[in-house]
């Protein structure tokens, strides 16, 4: 017998979305010189607000404000004092966590249970963690008196809007830098709420500046001559353009780009646990995750059993309203991203892979894609090589550990990997063989502010998180 879930919507009443937003420059919201654009809720296509689009002059004003704050206040302040501001920001985020979670789910489309239990707690944890480093930098193994770089220009994507902001802003500020940050075009609202938190925390004006806009605003920011450090998370394509734009300048750069992670299941793995890990690896955040386990490599002898249980588990996934507390998979972030996911899935079918999704009813408005797996995938198929950035899993099989390693490493990316096995020695051997920045064993998509994160090869360079995350922000 099947029971239906009653709707369990989280109330929107806690957030106050204004009809329009300006830019956050020098501690105040100001009108931009450029046009404005709309941000929508991807689950309904409802227009949420008009957002100012920063042009070159606006970016210049923000960089100037950051430079003044850097020279006059922030770089002169003791680490202990900077730490106090970061602790205050962390506490305010905790106090306003429900507001942040609801707003993130509305603007991005991700399920409230993820924004509430994963994104926002990790954001607070990140600020707490780097607050603790602010007065201990001389013990970080980065020299006896590491110095800040100056003004950081930071550009982030739409998949974890507030979390990527935290990954960028917390270490920069802890080290004594000031920042100008550009959130993604489709998800500016939590960054603008964060600007309010900066005001509430009495952060000195100009230490954090938020310039909203699209790619052109990002380009203006990273190519501004008075920016000392560029930090970017997003596509490999834009990462390459940025690396070219800053080549030959004094700017220090960190890039966190795409991935095509292998999630490797051996025949001795605890199957139910592995199935949960596969589901979490690819369907968490609609698969809009750079380190998503988008390639399942399963040992041939257990492939049938694993696939059977995986399909059974996928039938229980609930796709729908991001604000419903029972939702597992929310909306695809934009019509553009949905089109990309559809196109790559169609190519997979035309190349001969077999497509499967559980029966599920998708809402009529908004952007949706059912959780999908492709079997009969070969390494030459585009679905096995390119980042889909959606809830789409490619399934490949292997016979020996050596073959698993070869297949796993057969990708231009190298961000993450997962290993499922009962044998500790095999975990250690696999971890030494896999060319990926993060290797999870018997778990997946686990994040901790103390743990560094970053890629090899086309997945970028530099590390975020942990002590290593300080390195990108000091000389
Ligand atoms: P993207 O174009 O690389 O966008 C990332 C950020 O860079 C956004 O804020 C974007 O502005 C900005 N940007 C765009 N062009 C720029 C330029 N020339 N100079 C400076 N900044 C620029 O990524 P996307 O279009 O959102 O997603 C495309 C693909 O990238 C996805 O399908 C996925 O494969 C990958 N991706 C990876 C990650 C990751 O975490 N590694 C995250 C997101 C996407 P807009 O606001 O206009 O986009
Ligand atoms: Mg939006």
What structural class is derived from the secondary structure elements?
Answer: alpha/beta
Say what the CATH topology of the largest domain is.
Aldehyde Dehydrogenase, Chain A, domain 1
What strand line-up does the widest sheet have? 13-14-15-12-11-16-17
Q: Distance between the terminal alpha carbons, to the nearest Å?
A: 64 Å
Low-confidence stretches: none
What share of the residues does DSSP label as strand, in percent? 15-25%
Total separate domains? 2
Radius of gyration: 22 Å
Topology of helices and strands:
Elements: E1 20-21, E2 23-25, E3 28-30, E4 36-40, E5 47-52, H1 56-74, H2 79-95, H3 97-108, H4 112-133, E6 151-155, H5 161-174, E7 178-182, H6 189-200, E8 208-210, H7 215-222, E9 229-233, H8 236-246, E10 252-256, E11 262-265, H9 271-283, E12 295-299, H10 300-314, H11 335-350, E13 354-356, E14 372-375, H12 382-385, E15 392-398, H13 401-409, E16 416-420, H14 424-433, E17 438-441, E18 460-461, H15 468-471
Helix pairs in contact: 2-4, 3-4, 4-5, 9-10
Bound molecules: NADP nicotinamide-adenine-dinucleotide phosphate and magnesium ion (MG).
Residues 155-159, 182, 184-185, 214-215, 218-219, 222, 233-235, 238, 241-242, 256-258, 290, 340, 387, 389 line the site of NADP nicotinamide-adenine-dinucleotide phosphate (NAP).
Question: How would you describe what is shown here?
Answer:
The chain has 475 residues and is α/β, with parallel strands linked by helices. It folds into two domains: 12-256 and 457-473, Aldehyde Dehydrogenase, Chain A, domain 1 (3-Layer(aba) Sandwich); 262-441, 3-Layer(aba) Sandwich (Aldehyde Dehydrogenase, Chain A, domain 2), CATH 3.40.309.10. 39% of the residues lie in helices and 16% in strands. The chain contains 15 helices and 18 strands. The chain has helices at 56-74, 79-95, 97-108, 112-133, 161-174, 189-200, 215-222, 236-246, 271-283, 300-314, 335-350, 382-385, 401-409, 424-433, 468-471, and strands at 20-21, 23-25, 28-30, 36-40, 47-52, 151-155, 178-182, 208-210, 229-233, 252-256, 262-265, 295-299, 354-356, 372-375, 392-398, 416-420, 438-441, 460-461. The strands form four sheets. A seven-stranded mixed β-sheet has the order 13-14-15-12-11-16-17, with helices on both faces. The longest helix is centred in the N-terminal third of the chain and has 22 residues, at 112-133. The site of magnesium ion (MG) has 5 residues, from strand 4.
